[in-house]
From TrEMBL:
Species this protein is from: Methylobacterium brachiatum
Predominant localisation class: membrane
Record protein name field: SURF1-like protein
Keywords assigned: Cell membrane, Membrane, Transmembrane, Transmembrane helix
Pfam families: SURF1 (PF02104)
Localization per Swiss-Prot or TrEMBL: Cell membrane; Membrane
Membrane topology of the entry: Multi-pass membrane protein
Similarity comment: family membership: Belongs to the SURF1 family.
Coiled coil: none
């Protein structure tokens, strides 16, 4: 029979293992909850992007958690002389290959007042200069449909913008508006829809709803680690108790 001291020796590692087990199980359950949240988020985004376009919210009523990815329609005139370029990539005609270039952000002076930034779409690097894509400029009244997006914060390793050259590396709504002297810009921008049969640049419809949802894999990993912990501690405890039992038998 195992000695009492052998059982006492298991108290400290047993408590540590229980704490670790609780943490691992908690992380696994959290990932299951995150999976449910992500599925609901993806469903909401897909539903909103496919809905009939509506008027965008008033600037003071904008709520990113509620309004981002809504399909909207707005009318006005483009201020083509105040466009900005955001570095980016777009899918090429060859599968698996991406084009380097820019997203063209152009202020739209709304017919009902105010200004909203429109991401008109992508242009390849060789068409960076507006003079090389004059056929893609829209003069006069126009109507744009697209997807509402929140301003994009600059990540740690993203280069700073160069307002003097009109080049940016993230969709900084406030920064672009300030650099272009726009004082009444809405706190969001609109990603323009694709235009069927379009042959000019820029080309909209670049927004792809492709949010990763790997939470089930993460949950499996945490639960598997929890199972491994149980197995390792079980073997450890078994050997500790039986080694103690064997030692006691030999001594007798």
């Amino acid at each position: 029979m195992p000695r009492a001291s052998a059982w006492r020796d298991l108290v400290a590692p047993g408590i540590a293992s229980l704490i670790a087990l609780a943490i691992l199980l908690g992380l696994g359950i959290w990932q299951i909850e995150r999976k449910t949240w992500k599925e609901e988020l993806i469903a909401r985004i897909v539903r909103q992007t496919r809905a009939e376009p509506v008027a965008p919210p008033a600037p003071d009523a904008w709520d990113p958690a509620r309004d981002e990815f809504r399909h909207v329609r707005v009318s006005g005139r483009f201020a083509n002389d105040r466009e900005a370029l955001v570095h980016g990539l777009a899918a090429g005609e060859t599968p698996g290959r991406a084009l380097q270039g820019y997203y063209v952000i152009t202020p739209l002076l709304r017919a009902d007042g105010g200004t909203v930034l429109i991401n008109r779409g992508f242009v390849p690097t060789e068409l960076k200069a507006q003079a090389d894509r004059r056929d893609g400029l829209i003069e006069g009244p126009t109507t744009v449909t697209g997807i509402l997006r929140a301003s994009e914060p600059r990540a740690m390793f993203v280069p700073e913008a160069d307002p003097a050259r009109g080049e940016w590396f993230n969709r900084d709504v406030a920064g672009i508006a300030a650099a272009r002297g726009i004082t009444d810009a809405a706190p969001y921008l609109i990603e323009a829809d694709a235009v069927p049969g379009q042959t000019t640049w820029p080309r909209g419809g670049q927004l792809k709803v492709d949010l990763p949802n790997n939470h089930l894999q993460y949950a499996f990993t945490w639960f598997a680690l929890a199972a491994c912990l149980i197995g390792v501690f079980g073997v450890f405890a078994y050997r500790r108790l039986h080694d103690s039992d064997a030692a006691g038998t030999v001594k007798e």
